[in-house]
Amino acid sequence: MKIKWFQRVISFCAVMATVVLFSGTAMASEPIRVGAFLAVTGKASFLGDPELKTLKLYVDELNAKGGVDGRKIELIHYDTKGKAKEAKTFVNRLIKKDRVHVLIGGTTSGNTLAVIDIVERSKVPFISLAGSVKIIEPVKPWVFKTPHTDRMAAKKIFEDMKRHNISKIALISGNGGFDKSGRAQCLALAPEYGIEIVIDEKYDNNDTDMTAQLTKIRGSEAQAILNFGFGKAPAIVTKNVRQLGIDLPLYQSHGVASMTYIKLAGEAAEGVRLPAAALIVAEQLPDDDPQKPVLLSYKKKYEETYHDSVSTFGGHAYDALMIAVQAIDRADSLDRAKIRDEIEKTKGFWGTGGEFNYSPEDHLGLSLDAFKMVEIKDGKWHLLY
Fold this sequence. Notes:
It is a single chain. The chain has about 375 residues and is α/β, with parallel strands linked by helices. It contains twelve helices and 14 strands.
């Protein structure tokens, strides 16, 4: 009887050891689940499409090299079509059903702002790809972003206007979340730069003609026009300005930093100025610029893979993914709180947007120097400074 009892104990121990062994192996091989909710189709597809292509490209590359600490990356993505309701639905699904370890997305400011409460309640690290400063101000513990803010864009534009002795401007903007936030920043910052907004016009982003608003602007004292928006609308504004023969400097926001805008606006885009990430003028940077190798590498890989022009929006996705995987590598854990903490500790990371230095007080981590002022010449981006 004692022998049989001993044999049973040995068998039980062997079974338990096997369970622990396989359990440990399963845990060690658990993939890093990256959840993405992007506007791949719809009006903001020129933003979301390069974002998704970038994430797929670099997830595949990282996995081909063995992943992160031996863990493969699983990209789980949904198309919001740019709709806030869809963004909420998919973020809930990514968190509760797909059990992602980190979220990347919120292509538009409206989509991002719509899900912040969900993210904060669920305590999932989230890196946004949208522009509004409201995303990270005030600081939300679980929310970060990679694109330059609308406030930074307004500052860069106003600095350039001061260089050209422009003191009275016309402001025109759309009715989207990005547009409204950018308009608010312009109204708030203009007095600091000695700039008076003499006329403030608005349009619906679905409008196909803005000549009524621009005719009013033509009759004002404005010395320049600033359009804050994204999508097709800024291209329509640009064409209408030229069609009306308005001979004023035209500024756009970073929301049009894509070849799509130049293609849509055509010859009318000639001379338009805007702030943008250095990615679109990568070759024009000095050779000793520490950001240049990062930009050229991303640009070459993306364009060779997809046979399409690189955009700053895809670059924002690259930055978010790399910040996330490096944080996971440092955390050596899939614990969401530990990943969040390591994202916040990101320092000296050179991405397509600039040098990122996050802190508990700053969940953007970019200085105004990360923005470049560019002008469209001969259908191409030209670096000013």
